[in-house]
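Run log, item B.
One chain of 187 residues. Sequence copied directly from the ordering sheet:
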Amino acid sequence: MGKKKKLRKTLSNPSLLAPFNEKDGILQVVIETPKGSRNKYAFDQEQKVFTLKKVLPAGMAFPYDFGFVPSTVAEDGDPVDVLILMDEPAFVGCLMECRMVGIIEGQQGKKKKQLRNDRIVAIAEQNYSFADIQHVNDLGKKFVEELEQFFVNYHALDEDKYRILGAKGPSTAKQKVRSGMRAFSKK
């Protein structure tokens, strides 16, 4: 066997995709963890693959698909997080087109080391159950409280305190994405 073949980087990097579909301005989200999964997956920027980050205890699962907005950086240093409401679960690495209906604002950490960790709430463009939802308030107070409680419980697994600051509408969510895009461009 003559020359050694040089390994080529063949894996794609979904974190570098555009945050919005340029054709129609719809938010693009890369799925990390599907609805109903006990496994929490995350995209490893260095290796360019999805990795298993943690396993939730029996009886606890992600209530909806969870992912990130590409080409953004949030206050916690990760891409902007998104919870996507749709009929059926997607799969890890799937690119979804979504419309923002709001944001769950939260703060995590100990007293002196607290940082924002907000979650955009979005509706998948290709769905039926949530097609009429335009604002996070349209989901109903109890529904939103259950979503908020999931994030409180999720962080408690790592003995990390997560405090809900409130839920706001699509204009605040859009501001969060735009802020994340600016932070990404400065990287």
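Observations after the first pass:
- DSSP finds two helices and nine strands in the chain.
- The beta strands are 27-33, 39-44, 49-55, 65-68, 81-85, 95-109, 114-116, 119-124, 162-168.
Flagged for discussion on Thursday.
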